[in-house]
């Protein structure tokens, strides 16, 4: 996969802000780093990505969706380990008082890069040693006066209610709420494993130095699924239907290979059928949102980057102009979370297995995705530069995740054309399509504006439409138009969205 291209990232971010995909948060007060708002165009895409995840990862699998609290009491995060261990290495400049993430600072030094020094998972004293060895200086004031490295906990803390010392935290991941509610849900559903419970929601991490736009933010949206199963049975009922499909993996040396799912299991790249199935679902999801297979791959995490309780972590990596970024992680977390919460809360989190007449503490496979990173990858891979065929930059979004399914135009704002266009707009809306009425500027300008935010279909009402009760549909990717009856237009557009059509159909 290609290397980084910061120029492209900058250009895309500029377009994203100009076209209402994104708005720097609290902009009129100077935009603190690490926060972005989604404007109308971006928000529409983000919702569609979340809905697609819901449909594919939860609804089609018969799983449950919940929504849990954003603020958690300290006891929960003590049990999960976050209160004590969820930290990044921090180094300060003794001269100008700036603060930096020690591993990132080191990673930017040319000599460190050249020596290929492994920086993840190092202790503060090891990082301090490296800073001295490489004579690191402050990136801000350039003085060689860096402090020793210490830990900085990434959770935002707050006080719950007026009683001081009643500490709470903004959740650093959505998963914990699922572990807390699991026992109540499974008992309500007949205490039978396996069961899948997911949620989509905000999490917060007080990053030392947020950077790279949406890639490292202080507030972000996660989509997490916990698949709880009996450890005595890690088969998946749909495994046979996918075992001959393939997954693309990174080989750990900069290369990639395609491997049959059954073989990935035999070779230990994937720990069990459950994870294999969930990785395949992720692959299909990524293809559906317009990321080509050549631009993403799975990576089995090496032992030293995997928590002690894990029986296998597999990341999803996507090529972007920031370099390769991790957009999803799937972990076989065993019974670690449930056993921690059971120990700390004294609650019994086991279910009774009718067959073996034994109490079972469920194991968990957790696919976790970041929506914001996914959104950015979609922008990157659907962006098309202007060319002789199209004189403006545009986005080739799959119709299902485009911000609007269609824009509706009257040729002119008079002679009843506008009234007819409004009628069409209303009908499309009633059919559940996302549409926008647009009557300013020339038709050519309106087509360009629609292309620039990736709208797949433009529907125009002209004088002929009034006579024949029809409309033209102009297709984004080839710019071709067809004339169709107004009756059945909504069904037709819905069908095109479903098919993913972006060019005009051949005349019958
Ligand atoms: Zn300094």
Structure characterization notes:
The chain is α+β, with helices and mostly antiparallel strands. The chain folds into three domains: 6-82 and 156-381, BirA Bifunctional Protein, domain 2; 87-153, Herpes Virus-1; 395-499, 3-Layer(aba) Sandwich (Rossmann fold). The chain has 17 helices and 26 strands. The strands form eight sheets. It has a seven-stranded mixed sheet, with helices on both faces. A five-stranded mixed sheet has the order 23-22-24-25-26, sandwiched between helices. A hairpin with a 6-residue loop joins strand 5 (87-92) and strand 6 (99-101). Helix 2 runs antiparallel to helix 11 and helix 2 (40-58) crosses helix 13 (371-382). The radius of gyration is 26 Å and the shape is globular. The protein binds zinc ion.
List the helices and strands and how they pair.
Elements: H1 6-18, E1 22-24, E2 36-38, H2 40-58, E3 64-65, E4 71-73, H3 74-80, H4 82-85, E5 87-92, E6 99-101, H5 102-107, H6 110-115, H7 124-133, E7 150-153, E8 157-159, E9 167-170, H8 175-188, E10 195-204, E11 219-229, H9 239-242, E12 246-250, E13 256-260, H10 261-266, H11 273-288, E14 296-300, E15 313-320, E16 323-334, H12 336-345, E17 351-353, E18 358-360, E19 363-370, H13 371-382, E20 383-384, E21 394-395, E22 406-410, H14 417-430, E23 435-437, H15 443-452, E24 457-461, H16 463-468, E25 470-475, E26 481-485, H17 489-499
Parallel strand pairs: 3-10, 22-23, 22-24
Antiparallel strand pairs: 1-2, 4-9, 5-6, 5-7, 8-9, 10-11, 11-19, 12-13, 14-15, 15-16, 16-19, 17-18, 20-21, 24-25, 25-26
The structure holds zinc ion.
């Amino acid at each position: 996969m290609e290397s980084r291209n910061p120029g492209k990232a900058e250009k895309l971010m500029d377009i994203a802000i100009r076209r209402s995909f994104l708005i720097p948060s609290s902009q009129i007060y100077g935009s603190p780093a690490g926060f972005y708002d989604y404007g109308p165009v971006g928000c529409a895409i983000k919702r569609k990505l979340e809905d697609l995840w819901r449909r594919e990862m939860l609804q089609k699998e018969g799983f449950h969706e919940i929504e849990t609290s954003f603020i958690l009491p300290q006891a929960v995060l003590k049990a999960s380990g976050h209160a004590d261990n969820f930290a990044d290495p921090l180094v300060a400049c003794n001269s100008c008082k700036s603060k930096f993430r020690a591993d990132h600072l080191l990673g930017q030094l040319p000599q460190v890069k050249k020596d290929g020094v492994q920086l993840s998972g190092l202790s503060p004293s090891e990082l301090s040693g490296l800073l001295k060895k490489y004579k690191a200086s402050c990136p801000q004031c350039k003085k060689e006066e860096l402090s020793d490295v210490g830990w900085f906990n990434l959770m935002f803390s707050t006080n719950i209610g007026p009683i001081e010392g009643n500490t709470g935290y903004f959740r650093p991941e959505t998963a914990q709420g699922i572990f807390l509610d699991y026992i109540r849900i499974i008992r309500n559903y007949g205490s039978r494993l396996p069961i899948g419970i997911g949620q989509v929601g905000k999490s917060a991490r007080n990053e030392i130095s947020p950077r790279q736009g949406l890639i490292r933010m202080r507030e972000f949206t996660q989509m997490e699924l916990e698949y709880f199963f009996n450890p005595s049975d890690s088969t998946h009922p749909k495994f046979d239907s996918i075992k001959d499909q393939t997954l693309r993996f990174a080989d750990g040396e900069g290369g990639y290979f395609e491997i049959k799912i059954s073989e990935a299991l035999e070779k230990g790249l994937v720990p069990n059928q459950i994870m294999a199935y969930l990785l395949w679902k992720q692959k299909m999801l990524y293809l559906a949102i317009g990321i080509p297979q050549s631009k993403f791959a799975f990576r089995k995490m090496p032992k030293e980057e995997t928590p002690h309780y894990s029986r296998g972590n597999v990341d999803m990596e996507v090529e972007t102009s920031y370099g390769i970024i991790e957009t999803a992680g799937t972990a076989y977390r065993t019974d670690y979370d449930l056993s921690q919460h059971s120990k700390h809360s004294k609650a019994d989190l086991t279910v009774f297995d009718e067959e073996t007449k034994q109490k079972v503490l469920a194991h968990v496979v957790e696919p976790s995705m970041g929506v914001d990173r996914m959104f950015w990858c979609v922008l990157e891979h659907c962006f098309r530069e202007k060319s002789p065929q199209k004189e403006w930059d545009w986005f080739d979004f799959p119709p299902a995740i485009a911000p609007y399914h269609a824009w509706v135009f009257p040729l002119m704002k008079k002679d009843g054309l506008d009234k007819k266009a409004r009628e069409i707009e209303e009908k499309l809306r009633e059919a559940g399509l996302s549409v926008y009425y647009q009557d300013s500027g020339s038709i050519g300008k309106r087509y360009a504006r629609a292309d620039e935010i990736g709208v797949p279909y433009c529907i125009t009402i002209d004088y002929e439409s009034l006579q024949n009760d029809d409309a033209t549909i102009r297709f984004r990717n080839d710019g071709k138009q067809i004339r169709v009856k107004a009756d059945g237009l909504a069904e037709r557009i819905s069908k095109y969205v479903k098919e993913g059509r972006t060019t005009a159909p051949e005349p019958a």
